[in-house]
Write a structure and sequence with these properties.
The complex is a heterodimer.
Chain A (H helix, E strand, L loop, with lengths): L3 H5 L1 H11 L5 E17 L3 E18 L2 E7 L7 H8 L18 E7 L7 H18 L3 E19 L2 E20 L2 E11 L2 H10 L1 H10 L9 E7 L1 H12 L6 H4 L20 E3 L22 E5 L2 E2 L6 H7 L7 E2 L8 E2 L3 E4 L6 H6 L3 E12 L6 E13 L2 E7 L2 E6 H6 L3 E2 L4 E10 L2 E10 L2 E7 L1
Parallel strand pairs in A: 4-6, 8-15, 14-21
Antiparallel strand pairs in A: 1-2, 1-5, 2-3, 5-6, 6-7, 8-22, 9-10, 9-14, 10-11, 12-13, 15-16, 16-17, 16-18, 18-22, 19-22, 20-21
Chain B lengths: L2 H10 L5 E17 L2 E21 L2 E9 L5 H17 L1 E3 L11 E2 L7 H14 L6 E19 L4 E18 L4 E3 L2 E5 L4 H19 L2 E2 L10 E4 L1 H14 L2 H6 L16 E5 L21 E5 L2 E2 L6 H6 L10 E5 L10 E7 L3 E2 L5 E12 L4 E5 L1 E6 H4 L4 E2 L3 E4 L2 E4 L2 E3 L3 E2 L1
Parallel strand pairs in B: 5-7, 10-19, 11-16, 15-23
Antiparallel strand pairs in B: 1-2, 1-6, 2-3, 3-4, 6-7, 7-8, 7-9, 11-24, 12-13, 12-15, 13-14, 16-18, 17-18, 18-19, 18-20, 20-25, 21-24, 22-23
Helix pairs in contact in B: 1-2, 3-4
Classes of the chains: A alpha+beta, B alpha+beta.
Chain lengths: 459, 420
């Protein structure tokens, strides 16, 4: 159910839109409320926190070709003059004349609640039970850390033509296992993500020994010998490549700034013909599955790459307006304190027809790269940096039992995507990540896809 | 809700053993440019109230953190506090005390200029350096924010600290006639420094120019055991990792590689942790528990001489809390590198450090290779090393630098790194 406070401010937001519309050609009010419950059971500490980490409003206005915004904690009693005073510039520099936003009349409410909500005590007991079993599993496990996080988000969007509200929940379960052998310390992490608390805890329980085994195996890890190898990516690394290597480059606010090479590649091959890629809040049920974006645009499912050809970018309202395109519902703010940018949501490669075992059998010498660690975009020049937590060696079509860690994938985006020669029929979207734009503006995202076989420079 | 009203509710709840309240007020003005044209301007005026309540049961202590927002009135705050008491009672840890009454800090920021005007002046300072035909600043974001942080706890601590932060993000682009190349720069300062802004933009434009003419690394013959100079975020990650290793937290969880009195490196270096430094925008004289931050030397001549950390983990290790620091000062053994062949890493895509294995490195967007006579820009390669080994031969440059949370040499100098 929509947060009561936001519900109580819909009428106030409408009045404010009416008042400000006397001075401005476009006015909207976004109200945002986000609550995070975090329950931790760790080898040495435990904790329950429940924070309303976001509660506030953004007023957006347009006049004479320019947009301005005012962010505040509450709109009750907020005077038009306070807004005007804060956003008025005495010496207006040259500004970019942007058209005014046009919106269709829409009034709608949306909701998606936790499938099986649980009490704090029950959650903590389940986490503790998993942790105790993991700690007892092997004496080299020095730390087991189980975290349950429930995000509850409510938003309202009010403009002259629109009145929207939404409430949605998302639950992350995080498992971190630290192993130690002398001065050799290794860490493995695993996440489960669902719109259902009970399911998240059940899935964490199911993987507790498997993930402990990985953390123990990592104690044997060696550095990789740098070189060019055949690789198979697990779903998280496929997602990392979709997101970092290509996704950032099709955020169309980058097209407006002429910052993205992809702008010149629409309609051209950017990947092997067996590659298809999607993004959208409506394209999968995951961490970024909202019903409308922070511009009040309904969630979309956008195909970005079709049979290897770049067919579409993604956009927020303003970028779409400037490029004369339809917005794709990708306008997102870190919080009500920050500006809207074009942002990815749930980003993934579509599944193919190949069997994972056949992919392994096809490799003479290479690595199965697992578990996303870090990545960085380069939309203008399409250089890649994606890091896998570890890689498992494959020789003559079989796993050798050797492990390397960590593994950095680098190179040129189109070379990597064009080298994709097999796409598995497995599919998973992982919704536990956060993504920055540049080095700031963090939002929740998911990514994933099938296993991919490609050729890449590793180091 | 007013601070005094929140404190009254906390005091009236007899189940609460201790509490901490941090009130942060932020007023910011922000400008977003595409090329030299303003696209959007923003103003932010907000307050955040963060409360941690502590509940004691025998020799155990539980805590829960909540936020009080604009949606709260007296009735809802009382309910939130009551709920927090229940949650704290369900998640108990070994007892630790809060910081007792000490000298209360009151520091005001005397800066009175209009923040919109400061932001506009910073914009002008950016564009003062944006004067080339082949290169330009593609987009600029400017944030000028004034903060007031007020910390109160149940032991009588009442600190307040006002500060200013000026943040600038610029994306420089340079065309070599065939292709355009860009880099990324984010920098911040504790007061407006327009000359510094212009200098930073001049430097990053020069680097973008270098990226546009950079050779691939295999076009340049690199000698073995080349001196590699590391700066910026990567330097920051590496030196803070030494500090993290010596934190009470790392020692309590036994995830540290170094113990007190260990020799970290035979090449001497010192690390001192600080709360305040005029050159650093992360300055704050107290930490999140209200502990007043006194300078603390943790590494002396390459040896671990002291641990450091917050109230909770200090108590668990039976040590005095030093507080959680936000600034690190490094002094190292200087090395003359100027006339030798060397490689200066200007920009990583995203600097990587695995604090468990010690692996560090990443893909390099731009570096400058000095071949003994001249600098040659190089790009599209990666470097890697292991910091627990590399530190044993770590030297530093004579040139100095300051970042939001770092003061010391501009470069760390290593040999024997993997370059591929």
């Amino acid at each position: 159910m929509l947060n009561k406070f936001l519900k109580s401010r819909i009428k106030t937001a409408k009045s404010l839109v009416n008042e400000l519309s006397k001075s401005y050609d476009y006015v909207s009010v976004l109200g945002s409320y986000a609550k995070t419950k975090r329950i931790v059971s760790s080898t040495k500490t435990t904790g329950i926190d429940e924070m309303d980490n976001e509660c506030g409003f953004v007023i957006k206005v347009y006049k004479d070709g320019r947009y301005s915004e005012y962010s505040c904690d509450d709109i009750d009693g907020l005077s038009v003059n306070t807004v005007k005073k804060a956003i008025t510039l005495k010496d207006v520099p040259e500004f970019r004349k942007v058209p005014v936003l046009k919106e269709d009349k829409t009034v709608k409410s949306y909701a998606r609640e936790d499938g099986h909500p649980l009490g704090n005590k029950e959650i903590l007991e389940k986490l503790e039970a998993i942790r105790h079993e993991q700690e007892k599993y092997n004496e080299k496990i020095i730390l087991s850390n189980l975290v349950y996080i429930k995000h509850e988000v409510s938003k309202i969007f009010v403009s002259t033509n629109k009145c929207l509200d939404q409430k949605y929940d998302w639950i992350n379960g995080i498992m971190v296992v630290v192993t130690r052998d002398g001065n050799n310390i290794q860490q493995n992490f695993h996440t489960e993500n669902e719109a259902d608390s009970e399911l998240v805890l059940k899935e964490l329980d199911e993987v507790k020994f498997r993930e402990a085994d990985v953390a123990l195996k990592m104690l044997e890890a060696k550095p990789i010998v740098p070189g060019v190898y055949d690789i198979i990516t697990d779903q998280s690394i496929s997602g990392l490549i979709a997101h970092e290597a290509f996704g950032h480059g099709v955020e169309m606010d980058m097209f407006v700034k002429n910052r993205a090479k992809a702008k010149d590649y629409v309609g051209k091959y950017v990947a092997s013909p067996i590659v298809n890629m999607y993004d959208g809040a409506a394209s999968a049920l995951s961490a970024a599955s909202y019903f409308f974006d922070d511009d009040g645009v309904e969630a979309h499912n956008t195909q970005i790459i079709k049979d290897g050809i770049l067919v579409s970018g993604i956009s927020d309202s303003l970028s779409a307006l400037e490029l004369d395109k339809e917005p794709t519902g990708n306008g997102r703010r870190e919080s009500y304190e920050r500006k809207v940018y074009t942002r990815m949501t749930n980003t993934f490669f579509a599944k193919g027809k190949d069997k994972f075992d056949d992919m392994v059998k096809s490799i003479k010498h290479g690595y199965y790269l697992c578990q996303t660690n870090n990545g960085m975009e380069d939309p203008k020049n399409w250089q890649i940096q994606c890091t896998a937590a570890y890689g498992l060696e494959i020789k003559d079509g079989k796993f050798t039992g050797e492990i390397v860690a960590p593994v950095v994938i680098s190179g040129y985006v189109v070379d990597l995507l064009s080298s994709i020669s097999m796409v598995s029929d497995d599919f998973k979207v992982i919704g536990s990540g956060m993504c920055g734009k540049g080095h700031k503006e963090w939002v929740f995202v998911s990514d994933g896809g099938p296993n991919l076989k490609a050729r890449a420079k590793l180091g | 809700m007013k601070t005094n009203d929140i404190i009254k509710i906390l005091k009236e709840n007899k189940k609460i053993a201790d509490y901490e309240l941090t009130v942060t007020e932020k007023k910011s003005r922000e400008l977003f440019y595409v090329l030299k044209n303003l696209e959007i301007n923003r103003a932010t005026e907000i307050t955040k109230n963060r409360i941690t309540v502590y509940v004691d049961k025998k020799d155990k202590r539980g805590s829960t953190t909540i936020m009080i927002t604009s949606s709260d009135d007296e009735k809802s705050v009382v309910k939130k506090v009551n709920d927090a008491v229940v949650k704290a009672s369900q998640a108990l840890n070994p007892y630790f005390p809060l910081q007792n009454k000490t000298v209360n800090i009151k520091e005001k920021c005397e800066f009175k200029e209009d923040l919109n005007e400061v932001a506009l002046k910073i914009g002008n300072a950016v564009f003062k350096a944006d004067v080339y035909k082949e290169g330009w600043i593609n987009s600029t974001e400017i944030f000028v924010s004034k903060y007031t942080k007020h910390f109160i706890n149940s032991k009588g601590i009442n600190h307040s600290y006002e500060f200013l932060r000026c943040e600038v993000e610029v994306i420089p682009t340079w065309s070599n006639g065939k292709e355009e190349f860009e880099l990324y720069k984010f920098f911040e300062s504790a007061k407006p420094d327009y000359k510094l802004v212009t200098k930073e933009v001049e430097e990053i434009l020069e680097l973008a120019k270098n990226r546009s003419i950079a050779k691939k690394i295999d076009e340049v013959k690199l000698p073995k055991n080349l001196k590699v100079l590391i700066q910026g975020d990567m330097l920051n990650n590496l030196v803070w990792n030494f500090a993290s290793e010596l934190s009470y937290r790392a020692n309590y969880y036994k995830v540290n590689h170094y113990q007190l009195k260990d020799e970290i490196s035979g090449v001497p270096f010192d690390i001192t942790l600080k709360g305040v430094d005029k050159k650093c925008s992360n300055s704050c004289p107290f930490d999140q528990n209200g502990v007043v931050l006194e300078n603390k030397k943790i590494i002396k001549s390459g040896k671990a001489v002291s641990l450091w950390g917050d109230m909770q983990h200090a108590h668990y290790l039976d040590n005095a809390a030093t507080g959680k620091y936000s600034i690190l000062d490094l002094k190292g053994t200087e090395l003359d590198y100027e006339t030798d062949k060397h490689l200066i890493i200007s920009n990583f895509s995203s600097p990587q450090l695995d604090e468990n294995s010690g692996y560090w490195g990443g893909e390099v967007r731009l570096a400058l290779y000095f071949d003994g006579k001249k600098y040659i820009p190089v790009s599209n390669f990666s470097i890697s090393g292991n910091i627990f080994e590399d530190v044993k031969k770590m030297h530093v440059s004579k040139e100095k630098a300051a970042q939001p949370d770092y003061t010391g040499p501009r470069y760390l100098i290593f040999e024997g790194l993997n370059i591929f």
